[in-house]
Amino acid sequence: MLPERRGVIVGSDVNKGADHNSDHGLRAVRRSRRFGRRRLLFWLFSFAAICSICIAVFGFKLFFHGVEEHQSIPTLTSVKEILTSVEDVPVEPETMDPPKKKPPRGRFYPCKVELRDSVNELVEPKVFGKFVNFSLNYVAREDRPSLEHPITPRFGGHQTLEEREQSFHAANQTIHCGFVEGSEGSPSTGFDLDKEDKMYMNTCTVVVSSCIFGSSDFLRRPTSKLISQYSKKNVCFVMFVDKETLVKLSKEGSTPDERGFVGLWRIVVVSNLPYDDMRKTGKVPKFLSHRLFPSARYSIWLDSKLRLHTDPMMLIEYFLWRRRSEYAISNHYTRHCVWDEVQQNKRLNKYNHTAIDEQFLFYQADGLVKFDPSDPKKPLPSYVPEGSFIIRAHTPMSNLFSCLWFNEVDRFTSRDQLSFGYTFLKLKTTNPDKPLVLHMFKDCERRAITKLFHHRNP
Ligand SMILES: *[C@@H]1O[C@H](CO)[C@@H](O)[C@H](O)[C@H]1NC(C)=O
Ligand SMILES: *[C@@H]1O[C@H](CO)[C@@H](O)[C@H](O)[C@H]1NC(C)=O
Ligand SMILES: *[C@@H]1O[C@H](CO)[C@@H](O)[C@H](O)[C@H]1NC(C)=O
């Protein structure tokens, strides 16, 4: 996703400054370097200006493909981004889209979200939708005793392709859904939590959660004055971090108090991270809140780049109760077809290209079709989500979808935008009479209820 990349660039400059601050001897050198940098900047600006004019004149849509969201950020970043994204564009003629009327530029604005006036008016409906009911259980342990083929225990388990196929059925069954341990006595497969934190998490019925692993971001506290007393009392706000991040946050003054809180966030330290890839580890709290919070009926996920700007109960009312849906996620601000998303991921070198191809070819072989915006019966408004904000009821179907999506990320790449559409469509075709009631809302709504920041450099 773009903001992550952008954050890296912004963050690296900030950090460099901070690192050198104690180094008084270097100040003069730095100052002259800064002037050098300014001159460089001037030329960069000029170059960018010329580029923009060229682009405006020739309408090179491709140049701006990855830059849309950057219009709103400081010019320095934009310039760099434009330069890098120009380099990033490998021109593959057969995959280029036909030029559209206008290149998508301009800022992305929030739009009106008609929330209720007050949380006090809200009453949880007994039934707010016709959701499929079945009993879903999770593989807790894999101990296929086999001396010839011992398996290394892993967090996601070793789901076979047959088991994977079966898992898409909305039926009473036991499926893989992370937290898989090896045989008795084998070491933990990871995502270890403190006992007290677990006890706290077991009590939560409504959860707002987020994570920072590998010091990849700052701690953004929910805007307290916009959160009702009711929610402060009844909603758990849990921020999962690793030890490294905890140390870094503490250095910056965000030290948890004796109860483990920084503001509204309860800081929960995760040890023994299950994946080397921090992004993959981040998908555990993102998708598996029904496993982490077994008593929760609702959960809201927000990426660490977002600050929650709205009362969580109002969001549950607006996105779930009012729409009679059990899962709400926003669509991507420009891309709706997975084919475009794959191109973009490769263009910006978001992930090992071979791994992306493997995943995408698998999906195509299994019947993934292109998004057709003109189809009046299209199953979703978009096949590409902006997954930084998810609101869900912990119903069986919603939990099933979360597990299935997690399993895709576990099996393939951590780029979850690539697997969302496929997983949803496969679930739908596997269970024609048992729908997941999904509300895919507009990205501008996401912008209205949260505030977007840049990630920082790890
Ligand atoms: C859903 O099914 C489970 C068993 O599969 C049952 O215990 C529960 O009462 C059912 N809930 C509703 C609302 O029907
Ligand atoms: C699931 O099990 C419950 C009993 O626990 C039963 O009432 C229900 O019919 C089963 N559902 C399916 C889809 O088999
Ligand atoms: C990229 O992915 C492929 C297939 O998953 C793997 O064989 C290869 O080692 C990976 N390359 C790198 C540099 O990680």
From TrEMBL:
Name this protein carries in UniProt: TOD1/MUCI70 glycosyltransferase-like domain-containing protein
Highest classification ranks of the organism: Eukaryota, Viridiplantae, Streptophyta, Embryophyta, Tracheophyta
A UniProt-annotated Pfam family: TOD1_MUCI70
InterPro entries reported in the protein's UniProt record: TOD1_MUCI70, TOD1_MUCI70_glycTrfase_dom
Organism domain of life: Eukaryota
Alphabetical UniProt keywords: Membrane, Transmembrane, Transmembrane helix
Entry's transmembrane regions: 40-64
Domain TOD1/MUCI70 glycosyltransferase-like: 136-455
Organism expressing this protein natively: Artemisia annua (Sweet wormwood)
